[in-house]
Amino acid sequence: MEFFEVATSTPTQRRFLDRPIAEADLLKILETANMAPSGSNAQPWEFVVVRAAETRRQIQRLYEEVWGVYKETAIIRGRTTLSPRAVKALKSGDEFAAQLTVVPVHVLVFLDRPKMRVERGSADDLTNFGATYGSVFPAIELMMLSARALGIATAMTTMLSSREPETKALLGAPAEYQLITLIPMGYPETGFKRPHRKPVLPRIHDERWDRPWPLPKS
Ligand SMILES: Cc1cc2nc3c(=O)[nH]c(=O)nc-3n(C[C@H](O)[C@H](O)[C@H](O)COP(=O)(O)O)c2cc1C
Fold this sequence. Notes:
Radius of gyration: 19 Å
Shape: globular
Strand content: 5-15%
Largest sheet: 4 strands, antiparallel
Helix content: 40-55%
Number of strands: 4
Mean pLDDT: 96
Bound molecules: flavin mononucleotide
Structural class: alpha+beta
Number of helices: 9
CATH class: Alpha Beta
Number of domains: 1
Low-confidence stretches: none
CATH superfamily: NADH Oxidase
CATH architecture: 3-Layer(aba) Sandwich
């Protein structure tokens, strides 16, 4: 697939088919993700690929717990009437949480903290977050784009971070690794839509912040 088509049609997928992903495709996706850049070329990522139904079910349960708290505190917030946007967010979030047992693969991405040489929660961690977390997200995005190029859909999720101890215990992940994302991966129920985004022009600055990028000449 052509790069620009891939890059502009990789939305968050929330509905999947119950269809397995070929192992060769999975490997190709992760080998491509592994080409990502990282600070000092530390390559501080580890991927746990979960396909076993029981483990996926347990991950789904953990995710659903966090989603339940999130929807009460961040979406419903004690209100009895909700905006159409909130109703839509609730519906797609509920469906997505349920879909986590349907989707055939979960890739859990862990960050090798010792490799980054910044102690978690330290002052350096707060000021140097770009180098630390920025050393793993390019690999995650490459993974998602590579999957898309093979017709496989994904969703970036970080909600499971608040169940990190439980997730690590479930997967036997060592203490020094930090759970960064859960990427469900599978064939989409429908196609790949172009993501909805605000126009970029108002957010491009020409040399200085106070100089807007000139409008293209028509
Ligand atoms: C860092 C990050 C964390 C995210 N975490 C979640 C999540 O936990 N659950 C979820 O349903 N979507 C999650 N998303 C997906 C966003 O909600 C989604 O990208 C955004 O609404 C735009 O939608 P689109 O990707 O379909 O264009 C996350 C996205 C990013 C970049």
